[in-house]
Amino acid sequence: xxxxxxxxxxxxxxxxxxxxxxxxxxxxxxxxxxxxxxxxxxxxxxxxxxxxxxxxxxxxxxxxxxxxxxxxxxxxxxxxxxxxxxxxxxxxxxxxxxxxxxxxxxxxxxxxxxxxxxxxxxxxxxxxxxxxxxxxxxxxxxxxxxxxxxxxxxxxxxxxxxxxxxxxxxxxxxxxxxxxxxxxxxxxxxxxxxxxxxxxxxxxxxxxxxxxxxxxxxxxxxxxxxxxxx
Length: 230
What we know:
Number of helices: 8
Strand content: 15-25%
Structural class: alpha+beta
Shape: globular
Radius of gyration: 20 Å
């Protein structure tokens, strides 16, 4: 197994994922976070005797990447625990503080029956994706993000247009017009703390148009149109 390439896509009729499409637009907040991690590594790493500037820069770069990997691994573990809960898997005791607030919020807002975790699709428009949670009966499309934040943050502080574009693309891809689109942010810093961003219909419509523009740009830059007839 290996990551699929553009050559594979041309040969086998594969479609790009939503995340690949979203990368066609700059993400200033993510870029800012990477810069801050690099600066922190440069400030905190001790210089080695006789170390050149180039060697130190390389070591600081690797250290900042390691911090990013650790943050990603923590977020992935929390995400997997929440996913497992909706798939009926047992929840480890250390994961309960992250899982239960999400389930409690969804129970109060929508009820816990009828959710499907990690559903995937391939849209004839030429893109695909896998949603964290969907409910086709209500309907709802929910995406879960594990992030480092404290109680001073609200849902609107943590959500960005790329999040709305992702949800809009999923909603369209699953054929769920009018579905509620929500982001659930789970704090990796404070167990039990979550924040929710519920996007309204004008926001989702606006960001669907933006996503479609990025999809068009992707096909132009890659010189490949992955749309198909079902």
